[in-house]
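Progress against Task 2.4 (sequence-to-structure conversion) is shown through the following example record, which the project officer requested during the mid-term review.
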Amino acid sequence: QEQLVESGGGLVQVGGSLRLSCAASGRAFSGYGMGWFRRAPGKERELVASITWDGDMTDYTDSVKGRFTISRDNAKNTVYLQMNSLNLEDTAVYFCAADRVRWRSVPPLSRDAYEYWGKGAQVTVSS
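Structure tokens generated for the chain above:
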């Protein structure tokens, strides 16, 4: 079992920045890829960013490329999502998730690749 707890969400104005953190416990964190998903009002959950177990490879959905950065600190069992230049369309509940396969060589890209999920953190961007 793995527990994931997100923090760092909140209210920010258009153009602002936030950094989300996801603290993991209960399973060997360092061997598993991680991802950040979001679910905007009235929309399906989408994968925003993902990272390999060692942090060497990352992947982003097109709408956040150049604005969001995913990173991880295996010594702290934590994955981060730095979000810059936020816009109204970024308003959503953000979830972190952990891969079900250990030592995957590429970032996990499908929702089915993830086994454990956090409860989510609300990010609201206002004008």
